Task: inverse folding
């Protein structure tokens, strides 16, 4: 295997992990929206509690993005990616088995923080591993994948609720991303670069002004 082919494979694996992370975290946020009415009825949640359940994820997600990115810059992205995704996946199970609205609220806040930490590392990893047109393409793939996941959430949630009934259905919507999270963790452990190591292109290729047109990475 040539050096160019090896690094090309490394880049494919990196973007695959990033796309999987985007799918997992964005699907979780959108799939719950369709389940809010039955969740409210099942847990006898108040209007305020429902608002926290809906908004808590996005709030903590947004608040974590900037400090998460800075932590990844200083201490390495892989560790924070894994920590955020493990937190996201574990508290998803907590939310799914909850019997009180505030348990769901706390879990959603933690999930949002974990997702924000993950996605800040995704953006940083793409910035580190790609440059020029390749970086734009990688970011585009990540954005498209996340958008598709967000669009698939409501129909998937509705299908689960219709098939399993309201009381079990909303819990299954919260468990839906757990297998995705676990699979992404395995891929990230194996394929994300360690601190100070990225699947960079060899120097002679990086220095060529038109290398991206001659050597597509997808």
Result:
């Amino acid at each position: 295997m040539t050096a160019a082919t090896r690094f090309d494979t490394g880049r494919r694996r990196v973007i695959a992990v990033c796309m999987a992370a985007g799918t997992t975290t964005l699907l979780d946020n959108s799939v719950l929206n369709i389940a809010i009415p039955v969740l409210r009825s099942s847990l006898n949640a108040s209007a305020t509690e429902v608002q926290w359940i809906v908004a808590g994820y996005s709030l903590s997600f947004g608040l974590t993005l900037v400090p998460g990115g800075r932590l990844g810059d200083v201490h390495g992205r892989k560790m924070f990616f894994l920590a955020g995704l493990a937190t996201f996946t574990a508290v998803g199970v907590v939310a799914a088995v909850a019997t009180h609205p505030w348990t769901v609220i706390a879990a959603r806040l933690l999930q949002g923080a974990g997702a924000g930490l993950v996605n800040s590392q995704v953006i940083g990893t793409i910035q580190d591993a790609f440059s020029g047109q390749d970086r734009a393409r990688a970011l585009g793939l990540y954005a498209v994948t996340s958008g598709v996941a967000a669009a698939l959430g409501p129909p998937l949630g509705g299908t689960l609720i219709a098939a399993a009934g309201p009381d079990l259905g909303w819990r299954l919507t919260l468990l839906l991303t757990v297998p995705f999270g676990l699979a992404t963790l395995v891929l990230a452990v194996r394929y994300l670069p360690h601190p100070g190591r990225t699947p960079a292109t060899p120097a002679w290729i990086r220095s060529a002004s038109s290398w991206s047109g001659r050597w597509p990475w997808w």
The chain has ten helices and no strands. Confidence is low (pLDDT under 50) at residues 1-7, 197-218.
